[in-house]
Design a protein that fits this description.
This protein is mostly helical. The protein has three helices and no strands.
């Protein structure tokens, strides 16, 4: 019915991506972070670019 190895690989990738997001956004304490600094705007732009891929 399904390929167990493929499922495990996809779940591993999701887990890695979630950990990366949490690590990169540790400094974000409010939504204002994204519009209050150049660094915040860059992170916001980066997220939008990733959504387009």
């Amino acid at each position: 019915m399904y390929n167990k190895e493929l499922v495990v690989e996809i779940l591993t990738q999701i887990s890695h991506a979630a950990k990366t997001v949490l690590q990169r956004f540790e400094a974000v304490t409010s939504v204002d972070y994204f519009i209050g600094s150049e660094e915040g705007l860059e992170k916001l732009d980066g997220n939008r670019i990733n959504d387009l891929q």
